[in-house]
Amino acid sequence: MKLPETFENRMKEMLGEEFSAYQACLETPSYHGLRINTEKVSVEEFLRVSPFSLKPVPWCLNGFYYEESEQPARHPYYYAGLYYIQEPSAMTPASLLPITEGDRVLDVCAAPGGKSTELAAKLKGTGLLVANDISHSRAKALLKNLELFGISNMLVLSENTNAIAKRFPEYFDKILIDAPCSGEGMFRKSPSMIKAWEANGVELFVKLQQSILQDVIGCLRPGGILLYSTCTFSPEENEQEIEFLLDQRPDLELLPLPMVPGFDRGHPEWSRTKNPALENCLRLWPQRIQGEGHFIAMLKRKGEESIKVKPERRLKKTVLPDEVWEFLDQISWDWDRNRLELQKERLYYLPEELPDRSGLRLLRNGLLLGELKKNRFEPSQALAMALKREEFSRTVSLQADDERVIRYLKGETIELEGEQGLVLVCVDGYPLGWGKRINGILKNKYLAGWRWLS
Asked: Strand ranges (DSSP E) for 179-302?
């Protein structure tokens, strides 16, 4: 692989004798990984049903390598939201951020959702995940992946970090910034990144990263934790950015991170002041691990943990038509009526943690339950993915190798005997979407934009 001369010279200086091993690894195939959605299935359960040859990723308990020839994105379990296809080293940031149930969590640069989906799974339906991406088109992809994972306690935004900083001062318990970067760790996986690097260099991203850090750090409550990561190797975007933040905010301290065989510590000699605390950062190099590389730093805001302010409760319950309750009564959830909100014809189940959303560019506000259409209620694809099979009154489960599963995912009508009416269609017990059974035929209600493409 032909590397830019400036990049190559810098890597030789950084790696020394190890540069030849780095250069050699770029000529080998990249690694492929999937991360199990523990909100839907335990690791043990998935390994029992998995059709793939999986090997554990050492730094992520629910992460596994797979063989490229297996194509897990072309399996019905992918459409059931049982896993996320993710580069193995990119699994590290969300796996290290210590999420506890009830946390308020912000993922700042969240699209396409690899880290947000893991953060949400760790919340186990409690607290609040605010997932943001400034690009509206990328935020749409983020929303789809969160809905595929069955996440309901979320706000999905497409905002700049300055607007987020103004709206959420000292609000979050945990923040993840997987920052836009020069992408040097992606050269092997995406050689086109080399041309982008030559066009943009490092300095463009340094300024952007500093702007994001300055904005977002004010959203962290005392006692809260922020994790900063990149998929690049340049010290200017890594150790020096953490040094910049520590200079700006003396109330921050770097926390040590767990070492896994192959991991490297941060390098104080690559910073401006040679701050020894920078050894608490992590560097993942592709010549040492089975992955593309990453940089990670975890910081804690000093001070006593503030008492979480309870969200304001809605004083007025939404009055819903009878046909909505006829449907909702078929779901074995303990509905909090204060969290049901009808916005024109769309019905939402709002997160229990509900901040002020006015004026924000909002793509999703909790869980979209469905829409009222001509005095009938049409449940949403997002609701189907948020349910478990046993939580809905009428379900049908097809085996993964049943040819009707792929036909259903393509949006086709299939033969299906049984009780008439709306059913939750599952594969091996895991929900896929809705269908209406009439006289032995299933009228397909799988969301058109999600369909299996031939």
From this structure: 220-230, 252-255, 263-265, 282-284, 294-301
